[in-house]
Amino acid sequence: MWSLHEQAVTMASANALCMNPGDKDISYANHSSVQKNILLKIRPFLEDTITDMLNKILPISFIKVADLGCASGPNTFFPTFEIVDTITRVCQQSNVDSPELQVFLNDLPHNDFNTIFRSIPSFHERLKKDKGDLMVPCFIVGVPGSFYERLFPTRSMHFVHSANCLHWLSKVPRGVENNKGNIYMSKSSSDDVFKAYSKQFQMDFSKFLRFRSEEVIEGGQMLLALLGRNITDPTNKDCFPIWDLLTKSLFDLVAKGLVQESDVDSFNIPFYTPCQKEVREIIEKEGSFNLERMEVFEENWDFEDNDYNTNFVFEKNRSGQNVAKTVRAVIESMLANHFGESIIDDLFTIYAYHRLHEIQQAMAMASVNALCMNSIDKDISYANNSSLQKNILLKTRPFLEDAIKDIHVEVVLC
C-alpha cells in the first residue's frame, strides 16, 4: 500500500483545455493569484509530506518528483522550490548529503511549455542565490500528456504533487445532452446530469489513482489539492456559482444576437467539484493508497481578498474585474474553441458586470430603510425598536454570503 497525502455535447476535448498562454491579454501567468494563494495554504502540508518521506528513505542518491498539472507562469516552480528547500533543511539536520532531484513537470500538450523551458535558467539562478553551496542538484523535465493516462515507468516516482487540477474531468460526461440552459450542473439540471458528472469524476479519479499507484515506488507519497464543495447536495445553488454567472453572461450574448442559443445548450464544462465523502469513498474503493489525512479550507475568488494581503481594501468594481479575469484565464481557450474568439471580450465584460451586480444587490438589500432614525423619544428609539430591521438583515444574509462566495478547496494529503 502507498500513502496518499491526499461528441454531441461539446467540442471541449482535453486538448482544448489549457490555461491562457503568456501572449494573451489575460494570460494565466498574470492572473493565477488565486491558485498561488492555494499553494501558499498547502505549503505546510507539502513540507510535512516531504519531511516524512525523507525520514523514511534517507540516505538516498536521487529522488524523482512529478508535479501534475503544472500550467505555466509564476506558480509553476513554486512546489519545486519548496521541495528543494525542505530537502536541504532535512539533510542538514540529519547530517547527510542531499540527494539529486529530478522534477517532471506535466500538463496537457497545449500547455505553454516553451515559457516553462525559458524560465528554467532563471529558476536555477534563484536556487543558487538562495542555497549557495547547499543547493540540491535539480534536473527539470517537461512531460506533456494527460494525468488520466500512464506518464512514467513502473515504480519510478518517489513523490507526486498535483494542485488546482483534478477537478477538471478528462471529458464532458455522457448523458448531459439535455442540460439545456446550463453549461454545468445547476439547480435546473435533471438528476441524470448530476449523476453523469459524478460518475465521470469517479471514473477519472479512480483511473488517476490506479496509474499513479503503478508509477510510485512502494512507500511513495502523494499530495493532492482540488476544488471541491463543502455541501453534500450538488443541487445546492452554492456549489459553484462562477459557472452560473458565466451561463447568465452567455445568454446575454444570445439576447444580443451574438451567440446562438443552440451553441450554449450544446456546451458543457468538463469540471466537477466533489464533496469530502465522494473523495474518501473513491480512494477507499480503488484501494491503491491509504488516505492518511484530508482537510478543507476556503479561498476567495477575488485574489486580492486573502489572508496574506494585510492592506486589502474591498472595492466592488475592482473585485468584479478580478474574478472575471481569473475565470477568463482558465476557461478562455475552451470558450473560444466552441463559440469563437470574437465573443470573448464582450462575454467577460458582461461577466464582470454580473459579478458587480451581485455585490451591489447584496449591499442594497442589507441597507433597507437604514436612513430613518428616531432619536427624540428614548422609549421609542431606533435602538430599542429595530427588530424589524434586524429581521430584514437576517433574511438578506444569504445574499451577502453569495456576494463574497468562496472557493472550497479539498486537500487530500498526509
Report on this model:
InterPro entries: MeTrfase_7 (IPR005299), MeTrfase_capping (IPR042086), SAM-dependent_MTases_sf (IPR029063). Keywords: Magnesium, Metal-binding, Methyltransferase, Transferase. The longest helix is centred in the first third of the chain and has 25 residues, at 33-57. α8 packs antiparallel against α9 and α9 runs antiparallel to α10. 43% of the residues lie in helices and 16% in strands. It has ten helices and nine strands. The protein has helices spanning 33-57, 78-94, 113-131, 191-215, 241-255, 261-265, 276-286, 316-339, 344-365, 387-403; strands at residues 2-5, 62-68, 100-107, 138-144, 157-163, 216-228, 289-291, 293-300, 406-413. The protein is α/β, with parallel strands linked by helices and 414 residues long. It starts with a strand and ends with a strand. Strands 1, 2, 3, 4, 5, 6, 7, 8 and 9 form a nine-stranded mixed beta sheet that branches. Mean pLDDT is 81; it is low at 1-16, 361-378 and 405-414. It has one domain: Rossmann fold (3-Layer(aba) Sandwich), CATH 3.40.50.150.
